Structure formats: C-alpha cells, structure tokens
Amino acid sequence: MSKAVLITGCSSGIGRAIALAALKAGLPTWATARNPETIADLAEAGARVLALDVTDETSRQEAVQRVIEVEGGIGALVNSAGYAQAGPVEEVPLDALRAQFETNVFGLVRLCQLVLPGMRAQAGGTIVNLGSAGGLMAFPGSSAYDMTKWSLEALSDALRAEVRRFGVRVVLLEPGGVPTNFAAVQADTWPDSSQGPYAAFARNHHDRMTRYARPGAPGMSTPDKVAAVALKAILARDPRARYKIGMPPRIMPVLYRTLSNRTWDRLVSRLFPMD
After folding, report:
1. Per-residue pLDDT, 193
2. Of the listed 83, 145, 198, 212, which one is catalytic?
3. Backbone phi, then psi, for 171, in 5-degree steps?
C-alpha cells in the first residue's frame, strides 16, 4: 500500500505544520496550495509540491492523478484547506456563504471521492478531515464557518461507516483555537457593518477573536500540536474516529449539552456582546 500523504492548504498554519511533520516521519509528502510559490520552502525541505485549488475540478483531478502516477497510490489524504467567513447571518451575502461551502465542504467531499477508488483498490488508506470546535457548537458571528464544520461531523460519521470494510479509515480532528491568521481572515471577510445595526457587535467580535487567537491565550493549541495528532492518526493501524485537541472542544460542548438554552445564550452574550 502506498504511504504517500496528500495534504491540502499547506500555505500556512495547520496544513504547513502537517506537511513538515509528515516529512520528519519519513513519509512521501505531497504539499499543495493554490499558489505553489507560497510553499517553495516545503519543496526545499523535501516535499513534492503541487498547485491545488480545492474549488476547481480540473485542479483536483490533476493533483490526485499526479500523486498516483508517481507514488502508485495515495496512502493518506489530509483535508486541511479552509477559511472562516465571518459576519451576522443577516449580512453575509449568499455568494459568500456559497464560497465558504465550496472550499470547506464541497471541495473536501470531492477530494474524498477522487482518492477513494485508489484506496479501495489497495485495500487501505486514511482520510483525515480538519474539523473544529466550531463543529460542536455555534457562536454568533461565525455561523457560516460553523455550519461547514458541523457538516464535516456528519460527513465523517457517514463516510467512516461506508468505507470501513474496504480498509479505509476516516478521522476527524476537532481542534480548539489555533493561533494562525484565523482572526485576521475573519476580520477581512466580515461584511461592512460600520454603520448598521451590528456595528457594535462587529467591533466586539473582532476584539474577542483577536484576543482569543493570540499565541499563549488560555485554551489555545498550536499548529504543531494539531500536526502531531494528524500524524498519529495517519500512522495508526486503528485510529480513533475523533481527536479533540485543546481545552475548548472538551469543555464547551459539555456546557452546551448540559446548560439550558437560556443559560447558554446568556453565556454566549457575555462572550460576544451585541452592544
């Protein structure tokens, strides 16, 4: 069976860290990004690099086929590409919401479809999906992103049962906050709320996310910690279905399930004040 690892979203953050971890473990590593120039350093480190836009069908097919041609198959697919579309439900344009799903869900699903025939043929393989604590409970201002991560919870559960008999393992990583450029991207995608009814909420949300996503903030993980768990799942003969990484995905869902809706809403309102 091929040991080659195909990783999406390697230009920064978690995807880059997973590529470096796979290289260090001696695995044939294929790092991808929309612009290969952004991962030239990974090529210098020993990775094979490819252009891969997860929202483009031609790009998806060419990337998967190239790895198979060189390696004879794909041992693991790590779906790390993604971003966070922010904003209140009322103000997020539908085109922006569709784009969020195209990257975080539909592109991911299609890559699974493309690698599965080869994994079935070699009677084994691992698919690692990068979920989030946002897939376990939703927060105001993050509905678009959280919806995509909730989708990965359903996808991973269904897919895991469907392909188990072929020797294919499906793993979902559920990290909490990771100090990448997440907060900056959220700020950039937020609709212009400066003069609208959500102006104060936008300022409060940006402030909260900036403080929460800083290195060393309570409950934060690091890209390296997530990468270590991803590598563990790839190398394991019988990996767990889910890996919770950091404090938020362990504690917050318990509160979400046990508190009344009214109490939970009060807690969330304190975290993300609307005015």
Report:
1. 67
2. 145
3. -125, 140
Q: Is 145 a catalytic residue?
A: yes
Q: How many domains does the chain have?
A: 1
For residue 69 the two structure tokens come to 């041609």
Task: Specify which residues 174 forms β-bridges with.
Answer: 244
Look up residue 244 and give its two tokens.
Answer: 């919770």
Q: What are phi and psi of 272, to 5 degrees?
A: -130, 75
Domain span holding position 98: 5-271
Alpha-carbon span 29 to 172, nearest angstrom: 20
Please give the C-alpha separations between residue 275 and each of 85, 138, 232, 269, in angstroms, as whole numbers: 21, 20, 44, 10
Chain segment 13-41, per-residue pLDDT in tens: 999 999 999 999 999 999 999 999 999 99
The CATH number that applies at residue 16 is 3.40.50.720
CA 183/CA 237 separation, integer angstroms? 36
Whether residue 180 is predicted with pLDDT greater than 60 in this model: the reply is: no
